[in-house]
Design brief:
about 140 residues, 7-stranded antiparallel sheet, disordered N terminus
């Protein structure tokens, strides 16, 4: 009997905590509108930081703003940072952060958008133009 009560309480607690995480800003849900790499814009300078690479869908077509034409960064969907891309980013733009910009209502100026910094695994898992939930703990 105690196990069932404990299991029911734990299940209810987990379901309730998902809503709390989003309310606390620890969880972000919406449509992935852009994926970006933020780091040193100029490999020769350490003081100039900003968006190094940006990917977005424009009317269903992939648009990529990359630092160099021959950079080993993705130019086709899905946008994922593999080992070669990570090594390039470390050497030329590190330290860097990966972000996934998510909007509850894409295209709406009040669409409640956020761009949390994410781990490479999460960056690789979320897809441009698709619904995603990111836990930012």
């Amino acid at each position: 009997m105690r196990r069932r009560t404990l299991l029911a309480a734990a299940t209810t607690g987990l379901a309730a905590s998902a809503g709390c995480l989003e309310a606390l800003g620890i969880q972000t849900s919406g449509v992935v509108v852009t994926k970006q790499v933020w780091g040193r814009i100029d490999p020769e300078r350490t003081d100039a930081e900003g968006p190094v690479a940006t990917w977005l869908l424009d009317d269903g077509e992939l648009s990529a703003d990359l630092p160099e034409e021959d950079a080993p960064l993705p130019t086709e969907l899905p946008i994922q940072i593999d080992g070669e891309a990570a090594a390039y980013l470390d050497a030329n733009h590190g330290p860097y952060d990966l972000t996934a910009n998510i909007c509850e209502s894409p295209g709406d100026p009040d669409g409640d958008c956020s761009g949390p910094t994410v781990e490479r695994e999460t960056f690789n898992d979320v897809r441009l133009g698709e619904q995603a939930t990111i836990h930012t703990l």
